[in-house]
Amino acid sequence: MDFWLVFALAATPTPSLRLNNGVEMPAIAAGTWEYDNTIAELSVTAALEAGFTHIDTAHDYCADGSTGYCASSGGSNQVGIAKAIARSGKPRHSLFITTKVPGCGTQGISRSMCGADSVAAADSNIEELGVDYVDLLLVHFPPPLGCGKMNCKIIQQQWHALTTAHLRTNKTRALGVSNFCISCLECLAATPNMSSVVPAVNQFKYHIGMGADPGGLVSFSKSKGIIPQAYSPLGDNTSELISGPLVRKLGAAHGKTGVQAALRWIWQHGVAVTTKSGKMSHLQEDADIFNFMLTAEEMANADKSKTPKGKPSFMCNS
Q: Which pTM value belongs to this model?
């Protein structure tokens, strides 16, 4: 068992993970995907009251609840999130805010001006959130068709632009990626003068049913000092990881719910969690996963599960 996991279990109900630049990131985040401004405001309010300090959003989470190019939708739901943060009265330093910019060639980010467009999108995020800085800025996904020779150069240009304009100027405390496969991480690693700016986080889909290390991405990320972070931790369009027989049995053995067992499996694999709900009770349930441990046998049985299916990224395969 990893020492950090034993320490976290004993020391605090909501542990943090130290990123490769020394920034501390709370291990569980409240997400806001597919929430319009009103629901985003309500859900973040509920999350903060439930004890969450880590909020996750994105430039392409639109104010009307859609996902994509938000210019025609009144901007992003970050405006609603800003209202919740302001009303909470919580000091800025007590919160950890993650946001994202789209990949090159998508959602208002051009291929030809990807770096400049990405910086403008990141600036817009800060303005909409009503803050002076964010804690973690992610490149939301690679360009269409992945990270081969056709796209690697523009991925590197985008990374360099965000490093220069946001990380180096303290507009973000850490810089990371999302939906990046191994080939995408290798592309970034080949960026000139890249050695001191390894992505801090790689956020990708990860849940029971995908195996403990799908495509080797969890272990590869960790080997490079990149914290893996799960989105869609309960799968998509399924109740299997909420009330299915596997997770119900795992949870019952520890006086926990199926949801808590599914989230705990992720955490025991050393992966941070992003969850979401508009209901206070569900958020409290999601956050209450740090005071029990699945046994080695229980973890192995969950590792073997083949359902629900999923793949780490919707934009690349390897």
A: 0.95
Question: What stretches of the chain show up as alpha helix (H) in DSSP?
Answer: 3-11, 37-49, 78-88, 114-129, 149-162, 182-189, 217-223, 240-243, 245-252, 258-268, 280-287, 296-304
- On whether the CB atoms of residues 296 and 265 are closer than 8 A, the answer is no
Residue 273 DSSP one-character state: E
160-200 pLDDT tens trace: 999 999 999 999 999 999 999 999 999 999 988 766 699 99
- Give percent of the chain above pLDDT 90: 93
Q: Is 61 a catalytic residue?
A: yes
Structure tokens given for 262: 């599914």
Q: At what angle do helices 258-268 and 280-287 cross, to 10 degrees?
A: 40
Q: Are 264 and 292 in contact (CB under 8 A)?
A: yes
Structure tokens at 148: 């081969």
Q: Which of 35, 61, 206, 231 is catalytic?
A: 61
Residue 99 β-bridge partners = 137
Token representation of residue 260: 């808590």
Cα(71)–Cα(90) distance, integer angstroms: 29
Long-range contact list for 17-22, CB < 8 A, 24+ apart?
17/227, 17/272, 19/136, 19/174, 19/200, 19/201, 19/227, 20/198, 20/200, 20/225, 20/226, 20/227, 21/173, 21/174, 21/200
